[in-house]
Amino acid sequence: MKQRKGQLMVMALVLLVVLAIIVPVMVTYVRNEANWSVKQGQSSNALQLAEAALDRGFQKVIESTATWKALQAGQTFPGFVLDTAYTELPGGSYAVAVTSGPHTGEVTIVGVGRDRMNREVRALKAVYLNDVLSEITIQADNGVTMSGNNVQVEWGAVASPKDVDINGKIHPSFWSAANIKNSDSVVHRDNNGPTPPNCDSPNCWWWHSYYTDLPPSPQIDFAAYRSSAIASGNDPCGRPYYQPGNFSNNCTSNTGKPYFIEGNWTNFRSAVAGAIIVMGNLTFQNGVPLQLGARNARVPPKAWKQYCNNWSHYLDDYDPGLKIPTPPPACFGDINTSYAPTGLTKSINPAIHGFVYVGGNFTPPTGGGSADLIHGSIMVKGAANITTNSQCRIYYDPQVAANIMTIGLNLSRKSWEAIVLPWPSGL
């Protein structure tokens, strides 16, 4: 009996020891869990406040095209340089910064949120792109015909809601809400109409027909271009930049000032650095147009995406020193390969460097020479009839596209990420 009582005493002591160990651990765990829950709640509040900061920054960006232009020019705004603590939300406070970049036509918004106990800070960064003719060299509402044997469109796509006749071209990429035609043979690229598949096999890198998600044409701010042309006075040849009717002029204008023609511009044989707005037809004179002079044009970092079906052309003309596997991948720079070239240039000598808007039809020279015709971006309300047998090269310039004056903005979010950033000092 005494032995049994002794065993019970030992078991009781063991139990007390176990409880002495477990109870403090459980108490500590409960306390920590409560702290963790509070911390998680505070962190969630800080994240929500950072998201509110991004939203406030976005609303600032889209408040007007004037704000967008000022941001692109490098201007900053009070209250949007991490200099103000906004406290209208109950969970804490936030600060926001809005700056241009990292590339032309982009803005970066940084939001920092802090919970009301000032214990947790979270930060977010988003980059928005103004998609005005983004990566599009030629957009024509009434179709595009590329029937010239030596026509080359470089660095940007060709797009239209109507038929696009590519005439055997294997670059750049082509997009149509109707059919992709191929006038160099009786076989169209898309032979089954709107029935899928409606792109090149197997990867859809080259052409896309019956594509219903083409972005709408941007609303050009004609009033701004018109007033700018009127204010610009006369071009170097003594003719007004603003013409109330038809126009025919051969002149070199390297001023950056825009031409605004209310009627047609016929027999174009000029050299222009600046926007050209023609409300009627734009028709080039045969022969080599005047040229602005040779320049090293920056090859857009995304230009390679237009050559997935003609990689050798891109290498030969724009990045000949690039070392790639043999044989090269079907499209270098896909999801498994990193390729974002910077610093690549091409010597070109264009007749036009700027945005070209044509309210009627666009007709380049039909023969008689070799030329780099345009370095910029082209928007045509009618048809783009590129029917020349002379060498005719048209290059996309993303900076020109980003600076097109529009009535509204067409922003798309390029990236969104959490970053590490302390709460701004002094707030």
Can you describe this structure in just a few lines?
With 427 residues, the protein is of the alpha/beta class. It has helices at residues 2-61, 65-72, 222-231, 311-317, 398-402, and strands at 92-100, 106-115, 121-130, 136-140, 144-146, 151-154, 157-160, 164-165, 174-176, 180-181, 207-208, 242-243, 252-253, 259-261, 265-268, 271-273, 276-278, 282-284, 295-298, 345-348, 350-358, 362-363, 370-380, 384-386, 391-396, 411-419. Helix content is 21%, strand content 29%.
Write structural notes for this entry.
It is built from five helices and 26 strands. The protein is of the alpha/beta class. It folds into two domains: 45-131 and 410-427; 136-402, no CATH class. The strands form five sheets. Strands 4, 6, 7, 9, 11, 12, 13, 14, 16, 17, 21, 23 and 25 form a 13-stranded parallel β-sheet that branches. The mean pLDDT is 84.
Given the helix and strand composition, which structural class is it? alpha/beta
Shape: elongated
Question: N- to C-terminal separation?
Answer: 76 Å
Main pleated-sheet profile: 13 strands, parallel
Query: In percent, how much strand structure appears in the residues?
Result: 25-35%
Total number of helical segments? 5
Number of strands: 26
Poorly predicted runs? none
Helix content, binned percent: 10-25%
